[in-house]
Write a structure and sequence with these properties.
The chain is built from 4 helices and 11 strands, in the order E-E-E-E-E-E-E-E-E-E-E-H-H-H-H. The chain is of the alpha+beta class and about 200 residues long. The chain is globular and about 60 Å long. About 5% of the residues have low confidence. Keywords: Cell projection, Cilium, Cytoplasm, Cytoskeleton, Dynein, Microtubule, Motor protein, Repeat, WD repeat.
């Protein structure tokens, strides 16, 4: 997996979906599926400060806890918002480098670069899992995985066409990125939306 620019600081499987895992590196956190190797299925927008570590909540499978170099802890609920955290808290002034959650999901510890350890307690709303959390996150992950698979299939089609036209093999996806235009991406996105509409209509 070509995950991040620079080192990957953390890899952790989701406790409720073992084929999906979280990676942390550079200025983003990404959620991957073992079925999609070309790209992550979900990712955070680039943060202003480097993201240093991350973990899943053991009780609420849609909750990600991320630490940043500026001492902030951000809490992401993938069911509520995917473009920004639901809560950001300034834990300390020095860089936070690690975060771990207790098995109950209500307590978590953050470690700083200076060796300080901070014990935090989450509210009941963040720590307690709703009965529909797993079902709703399943739908989100399947939808995003399907989108990525459609894009991967489109890339393979373009790769094959280019190979036939030029008579030379394409060695990697990066070789294809130069030939993949906005039109091809739009076609793949429209195809994905058509499939999604059909599925919703069938429900």
């Amino acid at each position: 997996f070509d995950a991040h620019v620079g080192p990957v600081w953390r890899v952790e499987r989701n406790p409720g979906f073992l084929k999906n895992f979280l990676t942390v590196g550079d200025w983003t956190a990404r959620v991957w599926s073992e079925e999609c190797r070309e790209s992550s299925v979900l990712w955070t927008p680039p943060a202003r400060h480097r993201i240093t570590n991350g973990t899943w909540s053991p009780t609420r499978v849609s909750l990600m806890l991320l630490t940043q170099y500026d001492g902030n802890l951000s809490i992401w609920d993938l069911l509520r918002r995917q473009h920004e955290p639901v809560l950001t808290m300034q834990v300390c002034e020095e860089p936070l480098v690690t975060v771990r959650s207790h098995d109950t999901g209500s307590l978590l510890t953050c470690g700083s670069q200076k060796g300080n350890i901070y014990l935090l307690e989450l509210s009941q709303n963040l720590a307690t899992s709703d009965k529909n959390d797993k079902l709703l996150l399943t739908a989100v992950l399947e939808r995003e995985s399907k989108r990525e698979r459609i894009l991967e299939a489109r890339l393979r089609e373009i790769r094959l066409k280019q190979r036939q036209a030029e008579g030379s093999p394409v060695h990697s996806v990066s070789d294809m990125e130069a030939t993949l235009g906005d039109r091809d991406l739009n076609e793949a996105a429209q195809e994905f939306m058509q499939i999604t509409r059909k599925e919703f209509a069938a429900l």
